[in-house]
Specification:
heterodimer; A: 137 residues; alpha/beta; 5 helices; B: alpha/beta; TIM Barrel; 5-stranded parallel β-sheet; 47% helix; globular
Chain lengths: 137, 544
């Protein structure tokens, strides 16, 4: 049993500089008592997963608003599997059409939040899903 | 003096926001003569067309000339975007506005590893002069005006544009339009930079110098608050940071020995029009007054054209909602009207579906029709500055000016805009404001219709979206590889070496060398690589 606060990596990938959403989510999770590592911009999927492993993170939240989500989300899923870190809760958000969100969830992204999602819903999701990871069945 | 009536207020969702604007500027329930006590009508307002231009830069407002309806467009490859341009021109649009894709904006070719998944998504992919030629195929570049939204590699895009026109026999002196080229706001908000701030400033001064001499119809730079606002700033921050950037360019050009009146008449601005109607109008009016005063009194400009702040406006992408997206049509209409009542020179109205994807032809048409209804049916264009003298609007205009001046003082304490960027000042201010705003929605102090009130239980998802497939990326990557195989390699290396030499020599203007590189069909990635060899690349220290 591990009592330290939940730890989450908030990441920006590719060439997308829209960091407003990522920063707001990072602050909301921090205000909810979690430890948040913000990667900064322009990370590769490999870097994001490495950061999460090194930081012993419970979750990764990836924000993409450039339209590259169908490429970059699957690459992170692939990296998580390749680095034997599939138990890290991977979620994300951005300008992602509903149909794409469904496909990403089928590929293994746990949840996709789109513009207008309440911060509380995101905080609740992370607390519950990352919390489950801490107490394996 | 009559006494101000008291204010009771309704309760319930949104009531927490009754006594302040969306940017947290405190509001009274009503305004009256005492709110204008400090206002000198002759020196603070004057007439439209008169210094300090609070009421607009044209005496007759829009009677002599409407604003330019300019819809930003670009996606996929150059041929697809060219087709959309022909469509827009045929439907009565006045000028073109190029949206580039992320790899182009960041200086990468379409086959670069960094470009994967991004090619043609947010705009059109332009790797070399070859793509620029296709983009303007069948379009008379001497007749239209073009706005290009690109910053880090703006000098390269301008060189390609000039080269494409000259290949058609249209001299650069005949080219009209604007290139954004506002790098300072990239470090502040949009984050599409390449080189560190100081060499980037030299590039911009070179562009302004070059255009001042060789391109008399070209607006050299579009100093932009749009992205600052989209990143979550308040109206006053957008106003102050944008004008501070503008003054930084003025100072850089005069430091390089240019006379302020030689270049200032062709500087222009680009603002956001957000949903808080009167605050936006006040912001536009304050912008003109502050700019006029600084240009005349601080920078010693003598030509009235140098005092006049001209601006393009785009409705606020960040005010659009993914929920009930049709509601965005209504938001855009109000935001567009605020821009027009604020005296904008040109306008882009967002399409309802841009919060989900690139807009479809149908939604782009509705957005353009919104401007046409505004221009031709509502009659708001009949009278110049119709809100001038409104107790409320004038008081709010004063408040915007006051807040902007207070920010200028804080920026000066850091030693200037670049120093404040390096200290993370702007980034922190914006992140704080955006978090405050998000919290106010969370607590339902503010209502966003369809999001935290009046929401549907289940969202229906029947809106058509434009999709850019991965095939497009593969084809564009193959095209640039094919181009590399067909060129004169000796000419490529020669032009890139000369460009590097010019980068090392601050007295040599970069633009002629960049035009040579474009004509040799160097790719954007190659040109950026050569320049980064001298200047290095910028790395941001992330501020949360």
């Amino acid at each position: 049993m591990n009592d330290r606060p939940l730890r989450v990596v908030i990441a920006k990938a590719g060439l997308d500089g829209h960091d407003r959403g990522a920063k707001v989510i990072a602050r909301a999770l921090r205000d909810a008592g979690m430890e948040v590592i913000y990667t900064g911009l322009f990370q590769t999927p490999e870097q994001i997963v490495q950061t999460a492993i090194q930081e012993d993170a419970d979750g990764i939240g990836l924000s993409i608003l450039s339209g590259a989500h169908m490429t970059l989300f699957p690459l992170v899923v692939e990296q998580l599997r390749a680095q034997d870190a599939g138990d890290i809760v991977f979620f994300g958000g951005g300008t992602i059409p509903p149909e794409d969100a469904r496909r990403l969830k089928e590929l293994g992204v746990r949840e996709i939040f789109t513009p207008g999602a309440p911060l509380q819903a995101i905080v609740d999701f992370v607390r519950s899903e990352c919390g489950k990871r801490r107490t394996p069945a | 003096m009559i006494e101000r009536p008291g204010a009771a207020g309704r309760r319930g969702p949104g009531s927490g926001a009754l006594d302040r604007t969306i940017s947290d500027v405190p509001l009274n329930s009503v305004y009256g003569p005492d709110d204008l006590a400090g206002l000198d009508v002759a020196t603070d307002l004057a007439w439209p067309g008169e210094y300090p231009y609070t009421r607009g830069i044209h005496r007759n407002g829009y009677r002599d000339r409407l604003w330019t309806m300019r819809q930003f467009a670009g996606f996929g490859n150059a041929a697809q975007t060219n087709e959309r341009y022909h469509f827009l021109l045929e439907h009565g649009q006045h000028g073109l506005s190029v949206a580039f894709d992320m790899p182009t904006l960041m200086g990468y070719d379409s086959d670069a590893p960094q470009a994967r998944g991004e090619v043609g998504k947010c705009g059109v992919a332009i790797d070399s002069l070859a793509d620029m030629e296709v983009l303007f195929d069948g379009i008379d570049m001497g007749d239209i005006t073009t706005s290009m939204t690109i910053n880090g590699p703006a000098c390269i895009a301008l060189a390609q544009y000039i080269a494409a026109a000259e290949k058609k026999g249209i001299p650069r002196a005949k080219l009209g339009g604007t290139i954004q080229a506002d790098i300072l706001k990239e470090y502040i908000a949009q984050k599409e930079w390449i080189f560190p701030p100081r060499p980037h400033m030299r590039i911009i001064v070179d562009m302004i110098q070059f255009c001042t001499v060789q391109m008399p119809k070209w607006n050299t730079i579009s100093i932009s608050g749009y992205h600052i606002r989209e990143a979550g700033s308040t109206a006053a921050q957008e106003l102050a940071f944008t004008l501070a950037d503008g003054f930084a360019y003025v100072e850089a050009c005069t430091a390089a020995g240019m006379d302020v009146d030689s270049f200032a008449p062709r500087l222009s601005f680009f603002f956001n029009s957000h949903i808080d109607f009167f605050e936006e109008i006040a912001k536009f009016r304050a912008a003109r007054r502050i700019y006029a005063r600084h240009m005349r009194e601080k920078y010693g400009a003598r030509n009235p054209r140098s005092w006049q702040l001209r601006f393009h406006t785009q409705t606020a992408g960040c005010s659009a909602t993914a929920q009930q997206p049709e509601n965005n049509i209504v938001r855009v209409a109000f935001e567009a009207m605020a821009a027009v009542l604020g005296g904008t020179q040109s306008l882009h109205t967002n399409s309802m579906d841009e919060v989900l994807a690139l807009p479809t032809e149908k939604s782009v048409e509705i957005a353009l029709r919104t401007q046409q209804v505004l221009a031709y049916e509502t009659n708001v264009t009949n009278v110049a500055d119709p809100l001038g003298g409104s107790y409320f609007v004038e008081a709010l205009t004063d408040e915007m000016e006051r807040q902007a001046e207070s920010y200028f003082a804080q920026i000066a304490e850091y030693g200037g805009v670049i120093e404040a960027i390096e200290a993370g000042f702007f980034q922190r201010e914006i992140a704080d404001a955006s978090y405050r705003y998000q919290r106010s929605i969370e607590t339902r102090d503010r209502v966003v219709v369809g999001v935290n009130a009046f929401a549907h239980e289940e969202e229906t998802e029947n809106i058509d979206l434009l999709r850019i497939g991965i095939e497009m990326e593969r084809a564009q990557a193959a095209a640039v590889q094919d181009l590399r195989g067909r060129r004169d390699d000796a000419a490529i290396s020669r032009s890139l070496e000369r460009l590097q030499a010019a980068c090392r020599d601050p007295k040599d203007n970069l633009m002629p060398h960049l035009i040579d590189c474009a004509n040799a069909y160097c790719t954007e990635g190659e040109i950026v690589e050569a320049m980064a060899g001298v200047y290095g690349r910028y790395v941001e220290r992330a501020v949360l």
